[in-house]
Amino acid sequence: MRVILRDCTILTATRYYKGVDILVEGERISRICRNLNEEADLEINCSRGILVPGVIDPHVHLREPGQEYKEDFSTGTMAALAGGITTVLDMPNNSPPIDSEERLLLKMNKVRKKANVDFGLYITREYSKRAVAMKTYLCETPNVEYSEEYLRECVSNSRGITAFHAEDQEVINKEGRTLRAEIEGVRKVNSFPVEKRYFCHLTSMESTLMANGIVEVTPHHLILSKTDRKEYSVNPPLRDKLTVRSLWTSLNYGYVQVIASDHAPHTEDEKKEGVPGFPGLETLLPSVLTYFQKMRIPLTKAIKLLTHYYKILGIEKGDVTEGYYADLVLLSKKERKVDSTEFFSKCNFSPFEGMKFRYWPIFTMLRGKLAYSEGEIIEERLGKEILGLRTMQSL
Ligand SMILES: [Zn+2]
């Protein structure tokens, strides 16, 4: 299959340029030039939007196996496609937790048939070379065991990145999920080997400056601030306005490497009861690009933070360049309100409900195939396990 994308305006982690054509052959981008004189099976005019590389969301909870009533791998990865995300890394706090190679392989066999985007799976406790990385918690979490001993076991078993939920249980016991709980968590993580440290969803300048390793932040901690409304419960919690501002300053000065959604869907009733977590796959790109523009931070930097994890994994994705996988997303410049009733996710709730964002995906191409277009999934189940896609380096 040969596809030509005509008259593209391209935005990547390093460049913004206009008026080029892209030839896609098979799974990869084969040529990028002006006035491409070639024939193809399909031609798409891209002049009405901005073309970006498909992004990676390295922090999602797709709830399968065990909690399919909240989300499953099919609906979760449809939400990803609709959001311009072509790779997701799924967390292991399933029911039962993915804490052994045996459970990982069972999960892999189950979800592989349903994946609409490429995916990797985290494991907790036991090392497996089939897992993309280790995930562990410094505090009590549903479905996953917590103890100092368990934590140390996870870290010593991991051979590459360990993603830490860095809120410290001892501080939480005394004063709740305060910023001090996060800062104490970061301090503890800093005592583990530096090459393993990946800090999930940090929320303030103080913690991001202190964290020595890869720092992840989420759109909800960047955009929303503290409220008493039960539906807005999330871990770590939303912070006051000053802390939110400080997180932007930290990001602007280069202390953040990754933006992830922490997509954590629940039912409507669970949200009303205050079960923590938000869905975020469908709003990740629009929310981040819209707010970077508002904060006058170059959009190239947003793409950099949304594709950085590809570099960690050594996968030829996350850029629009010859030889790379053709994961391409055309974004509309038109403003649209967030309407969670339109989500592919089972979770019809959004903390951004009613907010106006630009940069919604018009289409998403996954490894050369048009998988999502104008509100519809065009081709299902194209997703592959990413470990087979790596070519440049390995963990
Ligand atoms: Zn999470």
Quick summary of this structure?
The protein has eleven helices and 19 strands. The chain has 395 residues and is α/β, with parallel strands linked by helices. The strands form four sheets. An eight-stranded parallel beta sheet has the order 6-7-8-9-10-11-12-13. Strands 5-14-17-18-19 form a five-stranded antiparallel beta sheet, with helices on one face. A four-stranded mixed beta sheet has the order 3-2-1-4.
- Major pleated sheet: 8 strands, parallel
CATH class of the largest domain: Alpha Beta
Distance between the termini: 32 Å
Count of DSSP strands? 19
User: Largest sheet, order of strands side by side?
Assistant: 6-7-8-9-10-11-12-13
**Residue share in helix:** 25-40%
Estimate the mean pLDDT confidence. Answer: 96
Residue runs with pLDDT of under 50 for 5 or more positions: none
Query: Percent of residues in beta strands?
Result: 15-25%
CATH superfamily of the largest domain: Metal-dependent hydrolases
Shape by Cα distribution? globular
CATH topology of the largest domain: TIM Barrel
* Gyration radius from CA atoms, angstroms: 20 Å
The distinct bound ligands, ions and cofactors come out as:
zinc ion
**What's the CATH architecture name of the largest domain?**
Alpha-Beta Barrel
How many structurally independent domains?
2
Structural class: alpha/beta
What's the SSE pattern? Answer: EEEEEEHEHEEHEHHEHEHHEHHHEEEEEE
Count of discrete alpha- or pi-helical segments spanning 4 or more residues = 11
